[in-house]
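Quick one - inputs below.
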Amino acid sequence: MGLKFSIPYQIPFYETDITHHVKLPHLLAFSLQVSGMQSESLGNTDKDVFDNYGLVWIVTDYAIEIDRLPRYNEKVTITTEAISYNKIFCYRNFYITDEAGQQIMLFKTTFALMDYETRKVAEVPDEVVAPYGADKIKKLLRGPRYKTLENPLEILYRVRYFDLDMNGHVNNSKYLEWMLDVFDLDFLTEYTPAHIDLKYVKEIHHGSKIYSGYEFDQGSLSSQHQICVDGNVHAQAIIQWKEIGDE
Amino acid sequence: MGLKFSIPYQIPFYETDITHHVKLPHLLAFSLQVSGMQSESLGNTDKDVFDNYGLVWIVTDYAIEIDRLPRYNEKVTITTEAISYNKIFCYRNFYITDEAGQQIMLFKTTFALMDYETRKVAEVPDEVVAPYGADKIKKLLRGPRYKTLENPLEILYRVRYFDLDMNGHVNNSKYLEWMLDVFDLDFLTEYTPAHIDLKYVKEIHHGSKIYSGYEFDQGSLSSQHQICVDGNVHAQAIIQWKEIGDE
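Output:
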């Protein structure tokens, strides 16, 4: 277990959806910001890592547990903690707690370092992660097995200019937008994710045509998703849904 | 001139674009958040206005002056000031200043109050705006004259779930995304808006097909824009561009 770092956050108007809850892709994006703030507080900024090693942090996997999504204007605390790391991957948790200190969401994330020039994953230099105090482990933690979808329903998306971030590719919070947007408005106002497993396979660039495909199983209230470009899978997810009233 | 209210803001990673500058639609959305925070600090929240009058604040016009867009991680201050109001409109400025206190952007905005049930603009109750200390004026401030475009280039957009906000319609920052996204990547990495006039005409709902149309004049480096649904204009803009290197 490593150092913890917390930031208070009040859910802004423009990041809430029609159900008055926070937009989940925004909360993922903001959480990465919080880990960046921890790095800054430890004098170990992303810029240092880039300047010294030519490496940039990327997220490869999320396992997201949602008891409930925070609502408009609600004050929550986002706490991040570096859990452990091995030769390739760094495991980091984000805990979202409400004003009473009750945990309402948990994001388990896997980070890796990408060589900015070659766009390939690099070994983790011990000294880059030393400031976070996490344990080095031998084990590779495995996510779920994602199957390739056989008869997905697919919706076409074009990459928009504002989908891109500073790294020159689509920001990873956008993948989840494409995955959730395939459902109709009635479904998204009645159901909310209870658990999401999400795996990033390949980056996506401007001008790409994205097929956001999914299969939904009404019996188990679960859906499987894939984001494809030119027939290649760039991201996969499994979502377990629940009724919003259940929270 | 009315009360001023300031919030410091550091530009987050996920709201910067490929040129490393802040995404302008995000900064507009965040500024509205700052005026909401001022209302809260004065004990005059949006919720109070809704509960007591059934009214919600909407923005009808922007005049945006950009010396330069703030960059990733830059610390700026956003100051809002209620300037004046008349029977229908409230005029409010937002000043973005850099760490040296230099003003780098100015948003002149026009707000109105919409009856949530009838979706029509309502008269401004004096007591709703009294806390901001702005002068009541008789004059209606006029924006530029927008012409209907005769032969626009048009790109089709579908409204996505996450384009909607808590008011159940498309968040107004999205209109600007559709207007700017029509340009190609090369143009958007070489040129940046110096001045934008933007007028909202009608709200947009989920399921709508949006045509973002524009005409660009290379000689004057200016573009005119309209957002249409079913042949009706829902928003219009005029943008004056400059080379990014000029800033």
